[in-house]
Design brief:
Layout: E1 4-8, H1 12-24, E2 28-32, H2 35-44, E3 49-53, H3 61-70, E4 77-82, H4 86-94, E5 99-103, H5 107-121, E6 129-132, E7 135-138, E8 143-146, E9 149-151, H6 155-166, E10 172-173, H7 174-182, H8 190-204, E11 214-217, E12 221-224
Parallel strand pairs: 1-2, 1-3, 3-4, 4-5
Antiparallel strand pairs: 6-7, 7-8, 8-9, 10-12, 11-12
Bound molecules: calcium ion.
Length: about 230
């Protein structure tokens, strides 16, 4: 299910970066640049979550937050505050923000917070599903679907695929696979990784001899192509 995130933020640089990242993560994103327009957008067409900058022209984040709560709108709010606004942070939570993030923040932190808040608000959808192209993985249910069809994987294959999907388009070295999946104190060679990758390819590739999903990066490792 595609969630709509409204970002109320007056700094164009942050808007652009957040837009790209959230869209990449599969969210639908709306923007407002000032407080009054932000409030109006929330009231008129409530999104699934609001990322609300504290210092805004028109109306500030506190005013918007208290106003939407006063109107009985209970959608989650993540407040963006500048470094050192500790007092503001507490005030934000008292006024009904669900979480806060201090600027400057990393995009991955923002995404993690958004997902955490949405999970808290929608416990009925408590799954961790990663979707990349035709592959969908439900981490909690330990389930993998390829084009909607279940694929049976061993535990190690599942962990390898999870690592590849979570960091898709990044090259993961054999050493990283060994360290993450087998642990550092176990003596296993790179060959073990290759064998498991081959087995995984036979299960998820259309043509395992010419893999299109899990591709080898010569002398380095493997990456997942989306
Ligand atoms: Ca601002």
């Amino acid at each position: 299910m595609t969630r709509t995130i409204l970002v109320v933020e007056d700094e164009p640089g942050i808007r652009m970066a957040v837009k790209d990242e959230l869209e990449f993560e599969g969210f639908h994103v709306r923007f407002e640049e000032d407080g009054l327009a932000g409030l109006e957008s929330i009231v008129r067409n409530p999104p699934d979550l609001v990322v609300l900058d504290l210092m805004l022209p028109g109306k500030n984040g506190f005013e918007i937050c208290s106003e939407i709560r006063r109107r009985g709108i209970s959608i989650p709010v993540i407040m963006l505050t500048a470094r050192g606004q500790e007092v503001d942070k507490i005030r934000g939570l008292q006024l009904g923000a669900d979480d806060y993030i201090t600027k400057p923040f990393s995009l991955s932190e923002l995404v993690a917070r958004i997902r955490a808040v949405l999970r808290r608000c929608h416990p009925e959808e408590n799954s961790d599903v990663i979707e990349r192209g035709m592959i969908a993985m439900d981490v909690r249910k330990h389930q993998v679907l390829k084009s909607g069809q279940a694929v049976e994987l061993t535990d190690k294959e599942f962990q390898i695929l999870a690592l590849l999907l979570k960091r898709s388009s990044e090259v993961i070295t054999r050493d990283e696979f060994l360290k993450t999946i087998w642990g550092e104190d176990v003596y296993i060679t790179h060959r073990t990784v290759d064998i498991h990758i081959s087995a995984l390819r036979r299960k998820i590739e259309d043509d395992p001899e010419h893999p299109a999903l899990i591709v080898s990066v010569r002398n380095v490792g493997y990456k997942f192509n989306t």
